Amino acid sequence: MSLNVAVIGLGWPGKKHTESLNGLDGVRVCAVADLDEARVRAFAAEHGARAYRHWRELLDGETELDAVVLATPPIVRDEPIAAIAERGLPLFCEKPPAHDVATARAVTEVIERAGILNTVGFMYRWAPLASRFRELIADRPRLFARICVAWPVFGWVTQGLAPVGLFQKAKAGGPLVEQGVHFQDILRYITGDEPTRVMAMAELDDNYPTAERDAEETSAVVVRHASGMLTSHVHNWSHAAKVLQLQIVGVDFDLTWSIHDGPLVGQVDGTPIDESDATDPYLEEIRGFVAAVRAQDQGLLRSPYRDAAQTLAVCDAAARAVLGGTAEAV
Fold it and tell me: Are 229 and 193 in contact (CB under 8 A)?
């Protein structure tokens, strides 16, 4: 039987998830919603879906839904999720799970009281090299980790390729909450080593001077984990290209994963490691969501909302540390 899925929010993530869903057998994107009327009508016509201007209209108008993909901005999460939960519909929520930790905690309770299937779009958990990394270092003593990230995000905004709201923390959360959350999340997934305390600094800089921007160009974070492992995480939004690296060093291993599309390289017990994989993690996370909906099995999902809220708490602590200049507990 074909699954009827609705997609709410047609920015880049919503469009990407629609493409992934339409590439799967037995899945139909039957309805889409977006505040931009021209965009939603054109997109609905292209994909053979019904168009709605608002998520409430979609949920009221679609009586035979099997699941919902929610790709609204993070400041628009609690109300639609509550309505989706009331309908008892499986939920795929784009990252971050909410704009702030308090909302994420409250939404977690709503989801779990309703008992709906739920997951958050941390796609790197679905990359085969993430699972391989996790396997290679399981139960091995770790010394430190290094995350280095640079994206041309502010360039995309000025070119009209990304929303202007990314300039403002009140709208998008800033680089650490909006995007750095991906990399803190994949580190938690690979190591299982929970962050406990965070220190951070950030630099606004003036490569993209605009009156409304308070989102920093570069952030530097140091995290202490439960095991005693320390992590450094440098995150930049003004570099002209992409740099996405995660290195973890242990007593008997040193491995670096170029996350976006690169290999996993290094050594374990002196044995060289050099592995690559071209699997699209965006497609895999949607494939996994559909499989969980068909089986009605939460255990098939790698990023339940509650766990995603914990990752958000790490980046929230970092953002607080930037403002306060002191170490913050997660």
Answer: yes
